[in-house]
HD domain-containing protein (Thioclava pacifica DSM 10166), 197 residues
Amino acid sequence: MTRLDRQFAFLAEAEKLKSVTRATPIHDASRPENSGEHSWSLALYALTLADQAPEGVTIDRVIRMLLLHDLVEIDVGDVPIHSQGGTAHGAEAILKAEAAAAERIFGLLPEDQGAELLALWREFEANESPDAIFAKSLDRVQPVLLNHQSGGGSWIEYDVTFPQLEERIGTKISRGAPAVWDWVRARVESWFERRGL
């Protein structure tokens, strides 16, 4: 296969992300979001909220991470953070399946390019570098805002309370984007208060 053959094979595979249904509905609650839409939305979040990134964060790298981070869902599917008490997302079997999916999907690319993108995906997953921490924060905030806009979305489905939201998601958002979490928290907390959650 030529370099272009491998690059287009990867791109064809990446199109499948549009068929992965997420637990979070889109803004008007008319249907679930798909993972391709989620990745695009996060890239736009990073571009728009770049001024909220801590010093030392490279937004171009963050955008690249966010465009790549969920490609593994082509093989593994979406794992909602609130499912099974919020523990499913970190389950060992899921982490292994995602790592294998990353190897397979990025392995479609020419070796040099595949290695570069796989390293970027792994950096995002490790959540240790400033770029990854900010990217993870944005990955957590977007579904919160969609659930809020759609009238509760997956919060209702998974019986989520505000303390659970703050523990599972708020702490992760505030780690990389504290002002963003403060803004979001002020808006979503009242939704839970009105429902006694």
User: Anything to note?
Assistant: The radius of gyration is 17 Å. The chain has a mean pLDDT of 94. Residues 65 and 132 are 8 Å apart (CA to CA). The chain has one domain: 3-194.
